[in-house]
Amino acid sequence: AQKITQTQPGMFVQEKEAVTLDCTYDTSDPSYGLFWYKQPSSGEMIFLIYQGSYDQQNATEGRYSLNFQKARKSANLVISASQLGDSAMYFCAMREGGGDSSYKLIFGSGTRLLVRP
Amino acid sequence: DSGVTQTPKHLITATGQRVTLRCSPRSGDLSVYWYQQSLDQGLQFLIQYYNGEERAKGNILERFSAQQFPDLHSELNLSSLELGDSALYFCASSFRDRGRTGELFFGEGSRLTVL
Lengths: 117, 115
Hints:
The complex is a heterodimer.
Chain A: E1 4-5, E2 10-14, E3 19-21, E4 24-25, E5 32-39, E6 46-52, E7 60-61, E8 64-69, E9 74-79, E10 88-96, E11 106-107, E12 111-116
Parallel strand pairs in A: 2-12
Antiparallel strand pairs in A: 1-4, 3-9, 5-6, 5-10, 7-8, 8-9, 10-11, 10-12
Chain B: E1 5-7, E2 10-13, E3 19-24, E4 31-38, E5 42-50, E6 53-57, E7 64-68, E8 74-78, E9 87-94, E10 104-106, E11 110-114
Parallel strand pairs in B: 2-11
Antiparallel strand pairs in B: 1-3, 3-8, 4-5, 4-9, 5-6, 7-8, 9-10, 9-11
């Protein structure tokens, strides 16, 4: 069963506008973490933002915010004031538990975002 | 710069051959993770080592093996290579303090092309 689902293979956004990238997850573990990574065309994976399952508030990091809806099991990434440099592949990922020193992440299939000038 | 170093960055080889990919984690990180990113499979977790011991195993083929050495660098060995092994192989390391979020810091990847 798919644990992380990103239903948008590709998206366009106009420069300076906000965009939401969808992510839903599936887990029965009460303790988990949700991550977003950015992969530009150069290939590296860049960590953007983290949300813990017990966090009361939605995470924010600069222009990135995570719209965490626990009951719906969704963790959408919101990018405000899009810039041309935001054009990249975006991956949602989940870590379950984390006990016993294993922090492996399970990734979704990604959403390719293209910012139009 | 994530602090994770992977070599080589690019590798072209033939089917049936064997290659070794190397990873040096961030200073102080005890865990090393290997991921495979191919066009049709996305980012697949292969294996994790923690302080020299295998800690978690994912979709790693029997033709693949890995190890983590006392200095914490890790190697991923791929043998009897097939065309389908062509992919970007990432190494990542995690912050040693379990109180942190546990985000993974990725290297730039090793792009393997099997001809």
